[in-house]
Structures are given as C-alpha cells and as structure tokens.
Design goal:
Blueprint: H1 2-25, H2 30-51, H3 55-68, H4 73-85, H5 89-102, H6 107-119, H7 123-133, H8 144-166, H9 170-177
Length: 180
Amino acid sequence: MQSKSVFIQIFAFISVLTTVLLVSLHEVSAEKLSETANIQLLQSKALVFAAQGNYSDAVDILQSAIEQEPSNYQLIFTCAKFAQKSKNIPLALELYQNLYEKVPNLYSTRLELAELLLASGEYEKALIIITQLTHKPIEYKSTQNQGFETLQTFRAHLYRGMAHYYKQQYEESKKYLVQF
C-alpha cells in the first residue's frame, strides 16, 4: 500500500512538471497556465486520496476539477470510477450517463454504465447500451492491447446475457452466456 501511494505521488509530480514544461514551450497566458496547473494539482491530490482508499475525498476533489474543466472526459471517468468505489452509486451513474451522452463511442464508459445499470435493476437501459457493444464475437487475441479488447468484448457479451436473463428472456440469454 505504501509503495502504491509513493508511486502515485511521483506520478502526480511528473504530471504537473510535464504540464508546466509543455506549457512553457508554447505561448500560453499566465491565466491558462494557472488553470491547467490547478487542475493537475487537484487531480494529483485526488489520486493520493484514492491510493489511501479515501475515495469520497477523491471524488470531492475531482468534482472541483470538473467544475473548472467540464470537457475533460478523463476527469469525469475517473471521478465516476472513484464514486463507484466509494459506493456512491447515484453519483457514479450520473457521471457515467453524462459522459455517455457527451461521448457515446467510449467503450469503457458504456461498459461501466451498463454494469451499474444492471446492478441497479435497470435491465432495459443496460440492454440498450450493451446491445451496441456486442456486434462482434469474442475472439481471443495474444497481444496486451488485443487482450484488453478481448476482455472488453467478453464483458459486453456477459452483461448482455445477464440483462436478458434478468428480463427472463432465457433463450436470448443463452446465446451470449453459452460462449463462456
């Protein structure tokens, strides 16, 4: 746990340093630099709290950063993930739904949203989102990137099968769950 916290602190420092260096290479106003550095600092603080298992404080900090930069989708996704870990499911659902509406083609967001919708008993909504993800069959791949894609596809098929099962559509459910 200690080494994870140190790693995150080092990562946060490097992120802030990189931002400052990149901005100094370009002509950027002092106001924009200050705003960017502030968001980086907030993000770094949130990562430190999360590394310590304090997800509620991490969420509060990330929400402050999102208010400053509402189009930063990585901040929104991370905040939703931490809200989910802190058991604040309504907030996590709201953030994932917001992100899904802004950028509907983010595969990870769709999966996380579908998972929470299934857990919340909103099977029809989950099924709509999952159906869009399961247009291709599961193919096992060997490289790390392709393996991640396989895992994402696997989750999508699993969730689609579960959604049909919960809706008592057993034959439709079998089509997706029999693959496992």
